[in-house]
User: Which sequence fits this backbone?
């Protein structure tokens, strides 16, 4: 049996903070709102509660499935009918929470089937969580819920296990069956995140999404890089967060030691909806750490 996190209360607190920041983002995504302003408001809300963003607020739109955060000079505004994935993470000393929901900007109701498919798939996957369950059982439930609405799950995006300071800790939770022989263990923390699309169900790499992470500790030879690594460790960060003396230039020098994230685009140019919760695998089922109802 996998041991529960020794600082479980901290994980629960990070989940509550992430959920509140996600819900704030959902409320702020309205016609005419600036993408950069919304992202920065989400991230500020996390910091105001004594946590740090586990990754930049992702505000991917329409055919963008994931990994877009605004740049420092992004002037784009949301327009009615945009389908926006509000993907948020918070951490307290490395105790991580990852959560997402999809907003149809302006309440046009043109894409309600997609949004419901992602949310229903998330609920179906969470309902199967228990110690010893095959991951493939969750994947089958997720895919069935999406296909029941005449849509496709995105095959090459997955949920994932989470460990301290490791957002993707090695165990994948695919959104289609046949992709995992693993089982869930009691005490594990996992993110379940279905993606539904009216496209072909696969992604391709688009342009740079303004997100990077350190592959490893750069050492102390460059004090500016050392300071940045102390802030972010190996968690993803936004280039617009590099605002201290010499930080932007230091990151340019360190390009080879950074992993950069492209925007994931639906390969058939289909629209994409996402829903996600971080859950603890408890003795009798899932404890949703990022529930909106969490106090």
Assistant:
């Amino acid at each position: 049996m996998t041991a529960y996190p020794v600082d479980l209360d901290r994980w629960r607190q990070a989940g509550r903070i992430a959920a509140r920041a996600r819900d704030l983002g959902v409320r702020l995504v309205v016609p005419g709102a600036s993408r950069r302003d919304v992202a920065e408001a989400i991230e500020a809300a996390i910091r105001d509660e004594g946590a740090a963003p586990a990754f930049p607020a992702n505000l991917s739109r329409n055919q963008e499935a994931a990994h877009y955060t605004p740049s420092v000079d992004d002037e784009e505004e949301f327009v009615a009918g945009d389908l926006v994935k509000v993907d948020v993470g918070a951490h307290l000393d490395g105790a991580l929470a990852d959560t997402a929901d999809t907003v149809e900007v302006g309440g046009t109701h043109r894409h309600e089937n997609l949004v419901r498919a992602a949310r229903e798939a998330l609920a179906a996957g969470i309902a199967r969580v228990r110690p010893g369950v095959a991951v493939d059982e969750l994947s089958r439930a997720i895919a069935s819920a999406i296909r029941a609405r005449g849509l496709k799950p995105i095959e090459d995006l997955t949920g994932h296990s989470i460990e301290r300071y490791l957002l993707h800790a090695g165990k994948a939770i695919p959104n289609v069956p046949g992709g995992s022989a693993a089982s869930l263990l009691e005490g594990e923390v996992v993110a379940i995140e279905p993606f539904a699309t009216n496209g072909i169900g696969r992604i391709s790499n688009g342009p740079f999404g303004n997100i990077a992470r350190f592959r490893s500790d750069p050492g102390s030879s460059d004090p500016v890089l050392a300071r940045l690594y102390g802030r972010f460790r190996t968690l993803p960060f936004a280039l617009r967060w590099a605002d201290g003396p010499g930080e932007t230039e230091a990151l340019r020098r360190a390009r080879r030691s950074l992993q950069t994230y492209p925007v994931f685009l639906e390969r058939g140019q289909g629209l994409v909806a996402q829903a996600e919760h971080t859950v603890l695998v408890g003795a009798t089922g899932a404890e949703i750490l990022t529930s909106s109802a969490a106090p």
Remarks:
- Residues 8-212+265-288 form a domain with the Creatine Amidinohydrolase fold (CATH 3.90.230.10).
- The chain has a mean pLDDT of 95.
- Helices lie at 8-28, 35-48, 112-127, 135-147, 223-232, 247-253.
